[in-house]
Amino acid sequence: MRTAVYPGSFDPVTLGHLDVLRRAAGVFDRVVVAVLANTRKAPAGEAAARAEAIREALPEALGGLAERVEVRVFEGLTVDACRAVGARHIVRGLRAVSDFEAELQMAHMNHRLAPEIDTVFFMTALEHGYLSSSLVKEIARFGGDVSAMVPPGVAARLRASDERGPRL
Ligand code: PNS
What we know:
By secondary structure, the protein is of the alpha/beta class.
C-alpha cells in the first residue's frame, strides 16, 4: 500500500488544499493529512478544530476518494510523521512559481533528514491558484465573503467569528 503524508497548517483549509488532496488521493492508496499543531501561525489548541474542519469537508470535496484519507494532528518533524504512518512520500501543492523556492528548500531538507522519503508536488487548479489561508482569514476578519474559497463549514465558522463589522 502506497501511503503519503500531506502536511500543513490548514489554518483554515481552503478549496486549494482540498483540490491538491483530491489529486493525491487519486494517486496514492492512503493519504494522511497531517495538521501541524505547533505552527507559528496559530495556537496549538486550534489544531484539533482545523483537523475536524478537513474531515467535515472530505465527503463533498473528494467523494469516494475520501475513503483513502485520514486526518491527524501532529507535532514535530514532518519526516517523523511520515515514518510513524509508514509513508515514503510527502505531498505538497504548488500554486505558482513563487511557491517553488521555499518548497524546493523544504523538499531537499526533508530528503536530507530522511533519504527514503520523497516529496511529490501537485499543481493547484488554476481557479484556486490565488488562494491562501492567511488572505482568507484577513478577508473574513473584515467581513468579506469567503464562501468561494473555503468549504461551507469553514465559511460559516469564519462568518460567525467575525465580530468586528466594517471600519471606516
Ligand atoms: O501549510 P504550511 O504552513 O505551508 O505547512 C508548512 C509545514 C507544516 C509543511 C512545515 O512547516 C513543516 O513541515 N513543519 C513541521 C516541522 C518540520 O518538519 N520542519 C522542517 C521542514 S524542512
